[in-house]
Every structure is written in structure tokens, then in C-alpha cells.
Amino acid sequence: MEQPLALPELAAHGGLTLRSWGLSDLELVREASEDDYIPLITTVPCPFSEPEGVAFVERQWGRVASGAGYPFVIVESGGRPVGNVGLWVKDLSQGRASLGYWIVKSARGRGAAGSALVAVARWALLDLRIPRLELYVEPWNTASVRTAERSGFRREGLLRGWQQVGAERRDMFIYSLLRGEF
């Protein structure tokens, strides 16, 4: 298991590119902040303001600099940023890391989340040599369930009351992908 010194740019299926966050991505943060769900499960500011958007981008830089995680902006072939996929390594000493992803509403349904998830999983398993990847999905979120399963992740079970989302604790499906399965 190795941690990179910087965030690489990754190519993903469908002409997508995964790259680091920049201040040019404030419109993506603004659109994400207007979503009913994204601000509940992330640090995307709600309501949006330019200073809060800048602070969000700077937090992404800090995660890379500290080695806590690797957040990528998902960019369509025409250059439009449409979401985020992140690799979070707080449990790396235990041989595992977790992934998370979100796509703004205007770009959903085109496979961007799945393509980005596969690209980051490949990087994590093959290049960083992380033995186990995990992700967590609320049972009602059928689009994310499909994304996880189509990307090769296997559902292991239901974690009851696993995560605080907004004002309540919610159940999560846990999914995993092992290095030898990719």
C-alpha cells in the first residue's frame, strides 16, 4: 500500500477525466449545493456562497496534502465538471479504504458515476495496492446501488443506523471490492 504524493489525472470510460479540484469548479459546487441530498452527506456548503465554495475547494486540497483522501472532479469530454469521486484512506493501516461519489442532477443517468468509480478503484487496487475497497449506500438509493454493483462491488450486508445523515442515523448497505476481484 502506497500513498501518492499528488493527485494524478485519471482517464475513465466514456471520455471522462478525473482531476484535482480548482477554483474554476465553483459552479459545480454551487449546483451540488442546490441538491436535496448532496449537502447532507458531504461537506458541500448549503446554502452556497462564493467564500463557502472557495473553502470547500480548499478543503479538497487539504485532504490531498494531508494524505487523508483523494477527491477527484469528474469532467465530461467537453470539459464540463459534473461530480466528485473520492478515495478516503483513514483505515489504510488496516488494509482498506472507502470510496464515495456524487453527480449533480443535471448530469445524472449517463454513467459518469460508474465510470469514475471504476477508474478510481483500478488506481487504488492496482497502483496504490490497497487490498480492500468499501463503499456505503443507503438502501433507498437504487441508482447508487446499481452503480456500485455494475462497477464490480459486492454487497456484504446492511449496517443498521450506520451513518448520521442530516438529523437522523440511517442504515447503509456495505459494498466491497478486493484487489484480486478486479
CATH top level of the domain at 10-130? Alpha Beta
Mean pLDDT metric? 94
Low-pLDDT runs: none
CATH architecture of the domain at 10-130: 3-Layer(aba) Sandwich
The radius of gyration is 15 Å
* Topology as a string of helices (H) and strands (E): EEHHHEEEHEHEE
**What does the main sheet amount to?**
8 strands, mixed
Class by alpha and beta content: alpha+beta
- Report how far apart the termini are: 16 Å
The CATH homologous superfamily of the domain at 10-130 is called Gcn5-related N-acetyltransferase (GNAT)
Indicate the percent of residues in helices.
25-40%
Shape: globular
Query: How are strands sequenced across the largest beta sheet?
Result: 1-2-3-4-5-6-8-7
Q: Say what the CATH topology of the domain at 10-130 is.
A: Aminopeptidase
Please tally the β strands and state the result. Answer: 8
Assembly type: single chain
Protein name: Protein N-acetyltransferase, RimJ/RimL family
GO molecular function: protein N-terminal-serine acetyltransferase activity; protein-N-terminal-alanine acetyltransferase activity
Domain N-acetyltransferase: 16-180
Keywords: Transferase
